[in-house]
Design goal:
The chain is an alpha/beta fold. It has one domain: Rossmann fold (3-Layer(aba) Sandwich). 44% of the residues lie in helices and 10% in strands. A four-stranded parallel β-sheet has the order 5-4-6-7, sandwiched between helices. Strands 1-2-3 form a three-stranded antiparallel β-sheet, with no helix packed on it. A hairpin with a 2-residue loop joins β2 and β3. The structure holds adenosine-3'-5'-diphosphate. Adenosine-3'-5'-diphosphate binds next to α2, α9 and α15.
């Protein structure tokens, strides 16, 4: 199962064309050979596209809208398969005792989840377990995507927050466009799921649609999961999932990560995880030239695919 490997820098390498943390090499075989449970539901995405938002929705729909249980941190309810590989040593060294188990030993934790588990991953199609790639097992997969300019800006702030990047936004955009950020290239991530969007076990969502009409997105996801939801419950869920409510909800707002990472470098003042939650925020911060670069790159990759944001 070993995929072709290329060195990028001290922390990253390219595995089968995907920019991955080197620590992922230790788990790639386990992931590739994973015995997939078809009852589990996977929330798959490129980072910063609305994954947390989607996970909270999916978990609640799968768990009969149990808001009581939803007070448990989302990282425990919907763990990220490859989370351990993303832990950088500067955080591990200082905080090992308080790093939550689903992150410290993510594979082990996910394996112990009872089914139907709600599994999060940022792995692209070509790094998913072989049983999925080869269509041997077909668990439900909900793929969330977002326009690349807003995604990139959100990723820039997040990378600064977790102290993995301290350059300018412009420099980060260049890295993003060159596919040198974790889980990139962006289009290699999005397009394989877009192409499979009509497969019965795949649901392709867009952040922009969720922002425009959250109740419709909830209904779509509920139908996909074979869950009935009354109008009243749907309204309550939409309210629970509003940006303001998620920003104030300690079970999903990653405030613990913000605190931990500010303590590690003692500099504070970074944007929170729940930062802006809006569409088109890029217009306020990207130069005309950078927007043009993104647009040319987008056109090159999406021409004749029918995908737009
Ligand atoms: P911004 O940084 O643009 O604000 P992910 O969960 O994939 O890491 O994505 C994080 C992005 O989703 C952040 O974007 C965050 O604010 C946004 N987000 C999270 N919950 C949201 C919600 N309820 N409504 C709108 N955006 C949300």
């Amino acid at each position: 199962n070993l995929k072709e490997l290329v060195n990028i820098d001290k922390y990253s390498c390219e595995i089968d064309g995907v920019c991955m943390p080197k620590k992922y090499l230790k788990m790639q075989d386990d992931v590739a050979n994973w015995k997939v449970n078809e009852n589990d539901v996977w929330v798959v995405s490129f980072p910063k596209t609305g994954t947390t938002w989607t996970q909270e929705m999916v978990w609640l729909l799968l768990n009969d809208l149990d808001y009581q249980k939803a007070q448990l941190n989302l990282i425990k309810r919907s763990p990220q398969l490859e989370a351990t590989a993303l832990l950088r040593s500067h955080l591990v060294k200082v905080f090992l005792p308080i790093i939550p188990q689903p992150i410290k030993k993510s594979l082990k934790y996910v394996k112990k989840m009872s089914s139907p588990a709600c599994i999060k991953t940022h792995l692209p199609w070509n790094l998913l377990p072989m049983e999925i790639q080869k269509d041997i097992k077909k668990p439900k997969i909900i793929y969330i995507s977002r326009n690349p300019k807003d995604t990139c800006i959100s990723y820039y702030h997040f990378s600064r927050l977790i102290k993995e990047f301290d350059g300018t936004l412009e420099e980060f955009c260049e890295k993003f466009l060159a596919g040198k950020v974790n889980f990139a290239p962006f289009w290699n991530h999005v397009l394989p799921f877009w192409e499979r969007r009509h497969d019965p076990n795949i649901l392709f969502l867009k952040y922009e649609d969720m922002k425009r009409d959250l109740p419709s997105s909830i209904r779509k996801v509920a139908e996909f999961l074979d869950k009935n939801i009354s109008d009243e419950h749907l309204a309550t869920l939409a309210d629970h999932l509003s940006f303001e409510n998620m920003k104030n909800n300690p079970a999903v707002n990653y405030d613990w990560l913000v605190k931990m990472s500010n303590m590690a470098k003692r500099d504070g003042g970074m944007a929170p995880f729940m930062r802006q939650g809006k569409v088109g925020g890029y217009k306020e911060v990207l130069t005309k030239e950078m927007i043009e670069k993104f647009e040319i790159w987008t056109k090159e990759h999406t021409i004749e695919t029918g995908l737009n944001y």
